[in-house]
């Protein structure tokens, strides 16, 4: 079973994404959260990368990630645009995106509710045409805003499709074990594959922003100390579509 990032209370408490459920509807809302998150995150990431995210979320099993790349993916982060070093991107993460998609799905399936703060129309006889149009416009705006955030999340991952850093040295000691001294290991993890001078090696004994090791044939020397890797391998996104207001 998948681990959800957003939780039941995100939609029950008063606020932007409150759906106004009662205790008899709890299971319906939980089913919607699970369905929506799996569907949209799979489309956003691709199936293999979504499974990698789920593996990480399962460690704590409470919707919080452990690997820094997934923490930043979910919660957001400010980072320097790889294509323009003088420009900072303030990535907002996927938390609000998922809440918007869940809100839209749940409210649409149940033909609106969420009294006291606005959205209504459970009984069409008690809803004017204007009320219905305004409600439709509200939930469409929330959906389309989530599409905006979905595209931002894809842009974030695409910015880290390939990452490069320069090691200060690579030393063999003992034989067949190489230690790479490197001050930038952003989103690198043990077991990841790095490429050095066109050859691939598996990362072991990583010390963040300090060093890592790999094993290879003895006697190798390196002149180009560029280390490249893919923080989000198997990224195969599907582009979302906006809902028309026509």
Chart the SSEs and their pairings.
Layout: H1 9-12, H2 26-45, H3 47-60, H4 68-75, E1 77-80, E2 88-91, H5 95-109, H6 129-159, E3 163-166, E4 169-172, E5 177-181, E6 193-196, E7 199-202, E8 204-207, E9 211-215, E10 226-229
Antiparallel strand pairs: 1-2, 3-10, 4-5, 5-9, 6-7, 6-10, 8-9
Silhouette = elongated
Portion of residues in helices? 25-40%
- Order the strands across the largest sheet as they lie in space: 3-10-6-7
Helix count equals 6
Low-confidence stretches: 114-120
**Major sheet attributes:** 4 strands, antiparallel
Report strand %.
15-25%
Q: How confident overall, as mean pLDDT?
A: 88
Radius of gyration: 23 Å
- Tally of separate domains: 2
Number of strands: 10
Q: State the end-to-end distance.
A: 38 Å
Q: Return the structural class.
A: alpha+beta
The ordered H/E elements are HHHHEEHHEEEEEEEE
Which tags fit this structure?
single chain; 246 residues; alpha+beta; Elongation Factor Tu (Ef-tu), domain 3; 2 domains; 4-stranded antiparallel sheet; 37% helix
Commentary on this structure:
- With 246 residues, the chain is α+β, with helices and mostly antiparallel strands.
- It has 2 domains: 151 residues, no CATH class; 67 residues, Elongation Factor Tu (Ef-tu), domain 3, CATH 2.40.30.
- Helix 2 crosses helix 3, helix 2 crosses helix 5 and helix 5 packs antiparallel against helix 6.
């Amino acid at each position: 079973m998948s681990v959800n990032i957003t939780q039941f209370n995100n939609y029950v408490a008063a606020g932007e994404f409150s759906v106004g459920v009662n205790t008899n509807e709890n299971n319906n809302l939980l089913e919607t959260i699970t369905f929506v998150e799996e569907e949209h995150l799979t489309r956003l990431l691709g199936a293999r990368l979504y499974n990698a995210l789920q593996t990480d979320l399962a460690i704590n099993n409470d919707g919080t990630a452990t690997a820094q790349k997934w923490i930043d993916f979910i919660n957001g982060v400010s980072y320097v645009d790889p294509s323009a070093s003088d420009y900072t991107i303030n990535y907002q993460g996927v938390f609000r995106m998922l809440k918007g998609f869940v809100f839209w799905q749940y409210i649409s399936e149940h033909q609106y509710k969420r009294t006291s703060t606005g959205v209504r129309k459970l009984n069409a006889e008690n809803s004017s045409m204007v009320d219905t149009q305004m409600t439709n416009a509200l939930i469409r705006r929330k959906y389309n805003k989530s599409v905006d955030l979905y595209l931002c999340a894809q842009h974030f991952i695409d910015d880290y499709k390939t990452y490069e850093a320069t090691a200060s040295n690579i030393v063999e000691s003992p034989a067949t074990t190489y230690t790479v001294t490197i001050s930038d290991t952003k989103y690198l993890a043990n077991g990841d594959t790095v490429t050095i001078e066109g050859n691939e090696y598996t990362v072991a004994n990583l010390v963040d922003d300090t060093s890592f090791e790999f094993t290879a044939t003895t006697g190798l020397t390196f002149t180009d100390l560029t280390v490249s890797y893919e923080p989000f391998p198997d990224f195969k996104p599907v582009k979302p579509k906006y809902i028309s207001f026509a």
